[in-house]
Write a structure and sequence with these properties.
This protein is an all-alpha fold and about 190 residues long. It has helices at about 5-25, 30-50, 55-75, 95-115, 125-135, 140-160.
Length: about 190
């Protein structure tokens, strides 16, 4: 790893930590969502710099889509306006601090106490192919089916959450002019 990679690794790591801390210090769900997105994009960058570009791009794409969907649903369905009302992301602070400290100590102890294996063979030439094959070789059908199921779930949740369809304001035969909009004081009321 060269000097540029090292600097990039440090910068992305620090940014990931800063945005991760902001997740617990900001006071609205929308801001927290985008802070978490920025942190996870930095983690994808770190993964890419460490030599796994396929996995890094998958992390970035997956997190961007997940956080955007979460933001859209918050704006559409939360009781407070767009998740921007002040709130606290900290709950049970003492318990959470105790659990986090214990897990951190166990992980650090694991780093020093576990006997790390030596590399038996040389590094494979194309790590992107290796990761893609490991992720998709036997599981391609599962991944495709899961993709369709998730898409169908999102569409069904949106359809079930709305109490009227797109053309309901035009009547059963779509011939009612002007449209009778049940929301607000629009035309035709």
């Amino acid at each position: 790893m060269g000097a540029t990679d090292t600097v990039l690794l440090v910068v992305l790591g620090v940014l990931a930590l800063v945005f991760g801390v902001l997740v617990f210090t900001l006071n609205s769900m929308a801001r927290v969502t985008f802070s978490l997105l920025a942190s996870l994009v930095c983690v994808g960058g770190v993964t890419t710099v460490l030599g796994l570009p396929y996995l890094g791009v998958v992390i970035v794409l997956m997190m961007v889509m997940e956080m955007v969907i979460m933001a859209v649903f918050m704006i559409a369905y939360m009781m407070n306006p767009a998740g921007l009302m002040p709130m606290s992301m900290l709950h049970n602070q003492r318990g959470a601090l105790a659990i986090a400290g214990t897990v951190f100590a166990a992980l650090v102890a694991g780093i020093f106490l576990v006997p790390w294996p030596d590399r038996a063979a040389s590094r494979p030439g194309d790590t992107t192919f290796q990761v893609g094959r490991a992720l998709m070789a036997e599981q391609m059908l599962t991944m495709v089916v899961l993709g369709f199921v998730l898409l169908a779930t999102m569409v069904a949740a949106t359809v079930l959450a709305t109490h009227r369809g797109r053309y309901d304001r035009f009547g059963d035969d779509l011939d009612q002019r002007p449209a009778k909009d049940p929301v607000g004081g629009g035309v035709g009321r």
